[in-house]
Amino acid sequence: MNSKLYIVILLLFISMLALLIADSFYHNYTDEPEDSDVIIVLGGGDQGRMDKAAELYQAGYADTVIMTPIGDRFSGEELKSIGRHYGIDESDIIVEEESDSTYTNAEESIKIMEEEGFDSALVVTNDYHTKRSRLAFDRVNDSDKTFIFINAMNLSGERWYERENSGTIWLNEFVKTWGYRFGLYNWFG
Question: Which residues constitute the domain of residue 50?
Answer without folding.
Answer: 28-156
